[in-house]
Amino acid sequence: MKAENYIKLEFPARSVNEGFARAAAAAFVSQLDPTLTELGDIKTAVSEAVTNAVVHAYPEEIGVVQLRLRILPGGELEIMVKDRGTGIPDVERARTPLYTTGGEDRSGMGFTIMEGFMDKLRVRSIPGRGTTVTMRRKLQRRG
Amino acid sequence: MQTFSFYSDGRLTVRFCGELDHAAAASAMRAVAEAAGEYLPRTCVLDLSGLTFMDSSGIAVILRAQRLLNHTGAALTVQSPPEQARRVLELAGLSKLLEQPKQQRREVGSI
Question: ipTM more than 0.90?
Fold first, then answer.
């Protein structure tokens, strides 16, 4: 599907960039005139996906995280967060609420929140090659 | 993110201000643990009214605080989350920890 507009960002998998990623997403999405609730949902979903990459993808190094946002025809927003890290051995298990390998600092609710706040969530992962999280959310047209 | 603690009559309030995300979660939890260790409260309230953002890292902080306070027999409640944080709490099934507004609590108490 051809995008009406898009951005692509790349940044090191550092925790400090989680806030940058959701702020950049919010700034890009503002052209769709989202409601405050929609904007909050999008920022939260981006934060969860990027934090997952920062926490889990690169245990031995600081790798690269890619964030791509596309506005599709009809006002649908697509968010893609991609890393080339360790990958997830069992995606289905990782998507189970409260499941985490991140220790006490993580709640295991990241995928549950992405799924709840977005219309669609797809997780593709190959161990040793990385993970791509793709989410879609249709925004209400106002006015 | 900044944290502020108040203690009065067995009730510890820890107020979070700013963005409670993965980058801020460790310091938020440290603030709760230090204040709880100092005051040994009967109840602890996490006041979220000053948050401009919270993701599942905030959920982890709340769950850890609950476990910590359970060890000392103290009760934990959460109060005044802004809309975005409230939606995260609801999705995580933590709405039950939300403290009722004062007026409602008085009404319940007067029955």
Answer: no
